[in-house]
Amino acid sequence: MADSLLDPNDQTTEREELLTKWKAKTPEEVLNAKVESDLYIKTQNARFDDLRNDYLKLREEIQAKASLEELIARQEKLLANPDTNRDDVNQPSFKPEDIDAMLEQKLSSREQLRKETDNLNFVKAKLREQFGDNANTALKQRMDTLDLDQGFADELAKKHPSVFLKTFGMEEQPRRDSYSPPPRSAQRQDRFAPQTPKRDWNYYQELKKTNPRIYLDPKIAIQMHNDAVELGDSFGMPKN
Question: pTM higher than 0.90, yes or no?
Fold first, then answer.
């Protein structure tokens, strides 16, 4: 099963890649990159601390329940020997639908793993189709340009292949018709254009509550960092 976009047999060490990348930079470029890196780390630390608190709450709830294997073993034991091990009879009973739900969760996890593998193979095929034998080199160059690491690129390819293709400039260009309708007047568009909400810390907290799947999307992390830099103190990030 494929686990990564890059071929492990055709990779230089990460230190060598970083040395090559930064030797060609001017002191001003290095300074700007350092400032941007520190700001990004600050935003991500706040985001991870918030997610960690949510995880700890969820972990406490999960620890209060028996594992699927324990539930099945206990039920099978009681069914096979209903008159023995009376201590087990006093254990909390579980409804069949509870076991069905946990089985469904197991199957969903397995299906998700299969889907991620298919997505990764799809992206690798697209890379080979566009770059041929130079797919590894082209991918690493674009990762350096976007300042993304391999783990981020792999995760994006597994979970959001279409976003990966757009991020790395590999999306298919739509065909243009020979005739295009004239644009609407700028005045009318401005008058009826929807207002863009202020994307501050509270905005992302609400997004996490209403649509956690989108909130956990890697591209949202980048958007959140850009918003924090643009808004500065008005972003409202919690202070450590």
Answer: no
